[in-house]
Design a protein that fits this description.
8 strands, 253 residues
Length: 253
């Protein structure tokens, strides 16, 4: 009886094993585990890209999963899907080079949003962009820096003042990037701050270095600046940090 029962159940066991095997193969083994909310200081960006920022506050650069780039080339950006978000997008996530264009958002969606969307929590354009805005407002980097008395000015800060202040406030270590000086006597210029979250959108420490699939994030991640070195990298602990004030632009008379 035992032998015949084994013979009867053996095909069933094979089917179950095959099904489990397929499930393992098709599951998202490389699903991201961390989201990086990246914010840029417009004055530093425009000092490099020769634009004139109208913003005196940190703006969204992107919301980047820690794994994958350009995950679905057939999933095209459609601004009509985020129409209700556009007023906030234009203010908080502007294209600093082309303020009236949506190409920056299109690029960020194609490169990073399609990868973030592999998680059910971000599986639409509206979910992705609205979550980025939600996290931006939640961390409120602008107000936090003011509370720490870190404000744009001609004063130089130490790197530890900025990093440790942010870490104390959020309870998580940021990744801070600067434009490094061409001369030893010059300060580094504060340019970009990354705040990291786990898959449940809980704050967590950012890593200093990323794997090779994130290498491009050391550059300005802009559609017109792709593969263009920016001089941005993790700030040095030993060089003073310059947080440049916004220079007002007056109309020509």
């Amino acid at each position: 009886m035992c032998l015949s029962a084994m013979r009867l159940h053996f095909p069933l066991l094979l089917c179950v094993a095959a099904a489990l095997s397929c499930a393992v193969i098709t599951s998202p083994l490389n699903l991201w585990t961390k989201l990086i909310l990246t914010q840029q200081w417009p004055n530093t960006f425009c000092s490099m890209e020769h634009c004139h920022p109208n913003q005196s506050y940190w703006t969204v650069h992107g919301l980047w999963p820690n794994k994958g780039n350009d995950c679905n080339s057939s999933w095209h950006f459609n601004s009509s899907e985020i129409e209700d978000l556009l007023p906030d997008m234009k203010k908080c996530w502007p294209d600093l080079l082309h303020p009236s264009s949506s190409q920056f958002w299109k690029y960020e969606w194609s490169k990073h949003g399609t990868c973030a969307a592999e998680a059910a929590s971000l599986n639409s354009q509206h979910k992705y962009f609205s979550k980025a805005l939600e996290l931006y407002h939640k961390v409120d980097l602008n107000s936090m820096l003011i509370k720490l008395n870190i404000i744009p000015s001609d004063k130089y800060y130490t790197f530890s003042e900025i990093e440790e202040g942010i870490e104390r406030f959020y309870g998580a270590k940021p990744k801070i990037q600067c434009v490094h000086p061409s001369k030893n006597s010059e300060p580094q210029i504060l340019g970009q701050i990354e705040i990291c979250f786990d898959a449940d959108f809980t704050l967590q420490d950012c890593e200093k270095m990323f794997s090779t699939d994130s290498f491009s994030r050391g550059q300005w991640d802009h559609p017109l600046g792709v593969n263009k070195p920016s001089g941005l990298s993790v700030c040095s602990h030993d060089i003073p940090v310059y947080y440049p004030p916004v220079i007002p632009v007056y109309p020509h008379v």
